[in-house]
Amino acid sequence: MLTSLPLLSITIFLPLLGAFAILLNWGNKQTSLAMNARWVALWTSLVTLGLAITLWWNFDASSSEFQLQDKFQWMPLLNMGYHVGLDGISLPLFLLSAFLIPLCVLVSWTSIQNKVPEYMVAFLVLETFLLGMFSALDFILFYLFFESVLIPMFLIIGIWGGSNRIYAAFKFFLYTLLGSILSLLAIIYIYFEVGSSSIPAALVTPFDPQIQTWLWLAFFASFAVKIPMWPLHTWLPDAHVEAPTAGSVILAGVLLKMGGYGFIRFSLSMFPEASSYFTPMVFTLSIIAIIYTSLVALAQKDMKKLIAYASVAHMGFVTLGIFTADAQGIQGAIMQMVSHGLVSAALFICVGVVYDRLHSREIADYGGIVHIMPRYAIFFMFFILASIGLPGTSGFVGEFLILLGAFQVNTWATLLAATGMVLGVAYALWLYRRVVFGQLSNPKLKELTDLDWREKIVFGPLAASVLIFGLYPMPVLILAEASVAKVIDQFNLALEVDGNLLVDSKKSLEVALLRKGQ
Amino acid sequence: MTTLALFIVFLPLLGFVLAGGLGEKLGDRFSQISTSALMGISTSLAIYLFFKMGLKEETLVVSLFTWIHVELFDVAWGLQIDSLSLVMMAVVTLVSFMVHLYSIGYMKGDPSIPRFMGYLSLFTFFMLTLVTAPNFLQMFFGWEGVGLCSYLLIGYWYDRERANAAAIKAFLVNRIGDIGFVLGIIIIFSLFGTLDFLAVFEIVEEHQQETITFLNWQIPALTLASFLFFFGAMGKSAQIGLHTWLPDAMEGPTPVSALIHAATMVTAGVFLIVRISPILEYAPLAREFITLIGTFTAIMAATIACVQNDIKRIIAYSTCSQLGYMFMAAGLSAYSASMFHLTTHAFFKALLFLGAGSVIHAMSDEHNIQKMGGIWKFIPVTYAVMWVGSLALAGIPFFAGFYSKDIILEADWVSQLPVGHIAFWGGMFAAILTAFYAWRLLLLTFNGKPRADDVVMGHIHESPIIMLVPIIILAIGSVFSGSLLDLLFVGEETTFWGMAIFVLPQDEVIEAAHHVVEWVHWAPTIAAFFGIAIAYLLYQFAPSLPEKLSQTFKYLYNFLYHQWYFDKLYNWMFVTPTLKTSQVLWEEGDQEIIDGLGPNGLGFLSLASGGFLCRLQTGYVYHYAFAMIIGITFMMAWYFWG
User: Cβ separation of B158 and A425 shorter than 8 Å?
Assistant: First the structure.
């Protein structure tokens, strides 16, 4: 019954419907207007989450095909169309987006008092764009969603952001514009090469290795800015610092993953030769990102900046994992993206909770808040531990799998990335110590109150999912398994066809094991 | 049996959940009773299981459910119960139970007792998952879990700046070691395609010649893995180089020092090394290294312990030194001797710490033994048990430490490895020092004239019964555990360890150790008496001598007093440069170079060429949309005319 409905499209566009409902402006007073907007946004996003979970339920993880597809030809002449569908690579991120938006609405419940309906509309529109972006199977559609995501994000930072929001938005603009124009050129080229803008068709089209290099670089410009990779990362801390809490949550939680998703879906799958050629560069940049940004995080005095730099370091693990092009590496990268989506979202909310109370992000203004906010301290500690990848939290699974995958390819990269484990402990625990532990020195802190019910409702599901995925990450890993295997098979096949397959120690191990098994 | 084992592991976790979840509502007493009672049940079950299974050499491996499965990588949660884990379970639960009880008295009046009791139980849970792990990854889970609890408990008094610093230091130093552990796990997987202990150990022999390319070198794979695991063990078990966190960890409450930093967690490294004995047997180079590091640690820590004045710091360095003995033995294939010393050490070192806690309790939180003295009459039970602990530590005949230290030194003597003799003489030297610092501590703390002020002296009182009972039980263990377990653990005919410990025939030392020449057998005892004699000479008969000696050998004294300057060296070599680099990267790298060349530089250009920033401010979304439209138009144009 459910399969006969265009369930995926309904899920994608439902938030847009909610946004229209808010725009209908019911309620005559400003306050009731705001309250209605909040509730509509919350319910819409919750129903969307419910639908997303239904999609998950109907998803067949054993198949690597695109599923739950909806297709509609709106430019048959140009061979372009509305085409959406999900596979094991996009579904985890799709679910992550649907999971985080209700939390964003709840986080902004009281902290946003200015232009509430517009704010909620921005978030619901953003949700539609994000869900659409992860499920788009048409290049034009993908590009539209991919770039449109930035518009609500600009508005959220620019209108509800901090004092220096113009600078941050400007920086964001400059970086992404550069990347997106180049990727648009690449998309145009692919469109003419394939003869349609269909992504599944492009995925099975072999591209000339010479051309691949250029296409790869064009996409890289876009994704490397998004994820972001060193040295294209400096927009991120500024954007985070200026964004409202929910903006940071969605920025770190989902927007960065657009880069990682793009790397797997396009760079690795469509341009295997170029990916293989550029792997050393990506590894180098990833390692630099992990070590460099971890060190920079140590020097931060602003909580949000610190966590933003930590995000760059964690994304360094993701790019490292993706370009190992083996199952552990890529699945680890997907796991790391999901985990980071939950953990960094939670950490930004942790900052938001105290920011709402004291209106300061300066670490030096805090200290000793465990005395007055013990429950907050527990949650904060838990997410800090997840951020440093303690086994039993989701952070560990991704990091470990990435290191494991990377070891088969490059032991130097593994060793250097592993030092990130130590640096991560240094900045994360030091942050916690300065903010939470110690004596209550700042007299203003005495008036703070511990978490209220709303904040507990926000933290609860985040903490639960971090713990569950730490002890049993299989829901995510099973989901991604078949699709990742397909990507890797295609990747290896393409390289084998070229006859330049390097001796793969991992591969020989597999063969040896299989022989032993028989 | 499986259910029983599961109960042993998970009852402490239940205790943590109860104390953590309900402790605040139902009060301190509730959390004390619930955690201690559950710990008590867990302990009795563990001891029952030890007799039921351990003595029959049964092995039980249970797989519960998948943890991580990606392609060929498949790891499940589970349990492995063999003699090795049974010994550890019994030791861990027993000491933990004693410490739980002791803490009821010791932490009286503390504002957050549920948190403390909860942490203790949580620690026990993680420690039990570590020792019952059936694979490397679950062991790492427990390994990090106990590290976390150690961090939380060292920093338990989070108001204190020093406690916080020590907690972070402990976590950081351990994490450095963990790089080794993680890389070791990865190498094991790439060699064997599995992480299950039994599966790996079964095929380890076939892989003994294999090499692996690590960094730019071809290295024998098993040797490399052993080195990496030992690097992890060095962090956790505070061996020379990565030991600096342990003395600082004494900032935590004393029961924590007894449980975590003496009896259990710090021995996890030894346990790891013994657990991977089938791998180590094919990595003789790594074993020699382990023995050398163990020997140097034993000597280094003992020399430092001789001049420290903080009662807990002395015992902490003593722990470090005794762990060195355990590694010394493990490196020479005397794994069972290593486990034996681990067990006896758990009793007498927990006893010494709890006794020290009792002293501190009596002395109104004084830690400096130079400010004690003359208090034995006021706290006779504590005095007596401290004597018992010291006798066991020094290895005086028929106390627990005598048997285990003896077999280690004998094994050193008979070992075929060239480092065996270094270990023997190093161990002998450390044995003299051990006895010396133990009696220095006893004499300065309890004997002589009182050096504390009258207020403190007026308050001296023996600890309450809830603290004394655990101490006395541990004292009984410190007396008898050696003689009782001697035959079982390291007897000539013993088959107790079964499959849990693997020794190649040519490396067999335990049997030969029973047939050493007579003087080797008695040498450690003589060394101990010699050390005690020096202590009496310096602190009883010629009390002015220590002062003179420290003046005469000023440099040596300062070197030892400042703990070989490790902290200063590390600060100079690592901490300061790291912080400086991070500042430079932030200010110069990100702000000057990247932003300067990138957005700000371009921004400046466009600003100069017509106020781009102002226009951007009013219409950047519009600009953006405009760029997109241009792009799409361009594409369509290409399609129609291209």
Answer: no
